[in-house]
Recover the amino acids of this structure.
């Protein structure tokens, strides 16, 4: 059995990873969460890892008392997450935490020589250059867990050495506000934004999907994961979420990865790569779907994706800054303190700032901290 370190165990990706890990024959060596210890305690009692970590110090202290009867060492804070990510006995680290909290644990895992299955967007959005440099220096694999990037990764398997990729085509569901005008978006509420038509995800990523910011962040991720220039990464809105992404080659051939919208497939592929094991997911029947539709993105109503493209073109600190502002803005929107339309507007305002060029991951974290503090309305 292989040893898995799971960061972000109680989230949507984390809970599905536990299900897949049982089927794939992975042993849970360590598990971590941000602060949700009620659900985490249940998971720990079931999977009995040797180590656990909670980012929130107070919640970690509470958890120690709750599971004092279990032989599990409980760590806390960022040091705890990074210690788990670098455990010598780990065979794979799956990072599914939400937000910039995921960057340092990813770097710790890579530095320890571990392969990383990545579901934390901020790792590559904010620190892409530093992360990929560390991946190359340590000779490890960075395996995508997001459905779109996993689809691209799968379509690239078996690519001839001389076969050149012309472009990547990421699909977007369009979220709950597909077809809305810019004016209509002025009145949407958090409750409306959280009703995703196809996927069950956490609140932050669901709002990002509604604003199309999620797809902009995925463009930045794809640039680093696949070493692809921004102008060769396209997006198409595909409401059914059956085609998860496509790769076009120089000869005009386009390969696509299809399947029912179920995150257990990309999670399992990351855990078992390069093997493919049986899975309990529903089998795709194109006849049952009958018709698949595709649309060009509406950049006028949903400008977030173009904001991310511009941040990527500028490079340096701009992707990290846009990500930080968006993360803070989404939190304010969910709290009822910011209108939906201000989320991309605040991100776009970031592009007008003169930002220092980061020379380290620590610089990225400082830029992130500073940009968050500026978002108040």
């Amino acid at each position: 059995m292989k040893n898995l370190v799971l960061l972000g165990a109680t989230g949507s990706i984390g809970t599905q990873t536990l299900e897949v890990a049982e089927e794939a024959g992975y042993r849970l060596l360590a598990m971590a969460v941000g602060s949700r210890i009620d659900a985490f305690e249940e998971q720990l009692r079931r999977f009995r890892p040797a180590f656990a970590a909670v980012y929130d110090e107070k919640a970690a202290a509470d958890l120690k008392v709750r599971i004092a009867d279990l032989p599990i060492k409980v760590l806390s804070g960022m040091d705890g997450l990074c210690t788990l990510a670098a455990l010598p006995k780990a065979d794979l680290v799956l990072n599914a935490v939400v937000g910039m909290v995921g960057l340092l644990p990813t770097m710790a895992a890579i530095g320890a020589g571990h392969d990383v299955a990545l579901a934390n967007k901020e790792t590559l959005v904010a620190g892409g250059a530093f992360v990929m440099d560390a991946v190359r220096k340590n000779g490890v694999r960075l395996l995508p867990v997001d459905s779109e990037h996993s689809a691209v990764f799968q379509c690239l398997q078996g690519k001839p050495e001389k076969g050149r990729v012309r472009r990547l085509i990421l699909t977007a569901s369009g979220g709950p506000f597909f077809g809305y005008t810019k004016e209509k978006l002025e009145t949407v509420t958090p409750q409306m934004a959280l009703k995703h038509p196809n996927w069950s995800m956490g609140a932050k990523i669901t709002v990002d999907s509604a604003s199309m910011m999620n797809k902009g962040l995925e463009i930045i991720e794809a640039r680093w994961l696949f070493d692809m220039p921004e102008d060769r990464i396209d997006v198409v809105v595909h409401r059914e979420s059956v085609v998860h992404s496509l790769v076009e080659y120089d000869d005009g051939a386009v390969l696509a990865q299809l399947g029912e919208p179920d995150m257990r497939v990309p999670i399992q592929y990351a855990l078992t790569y390069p093997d493919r094991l049986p899975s309990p997911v529903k089998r795709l029947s194109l006849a049952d779907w009958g018709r698949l539709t595709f649309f060009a993105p509406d950049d006028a109503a949903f400008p977030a994706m173009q904001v991310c493209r511009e941040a990527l073109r500028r490079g340096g600190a701009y992707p990290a800054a846009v990500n930080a502002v968006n993360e803070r803005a989404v939190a304010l929107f969910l709290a009822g303190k910011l209108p939906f339309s201000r989320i991309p507007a605040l991100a776009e305002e970031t592009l007008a700032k003169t930002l220092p060029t980061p020379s380290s991951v620590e610089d990225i974290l400082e830029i992130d901290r500073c940009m968050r503090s500026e978002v108040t309305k």
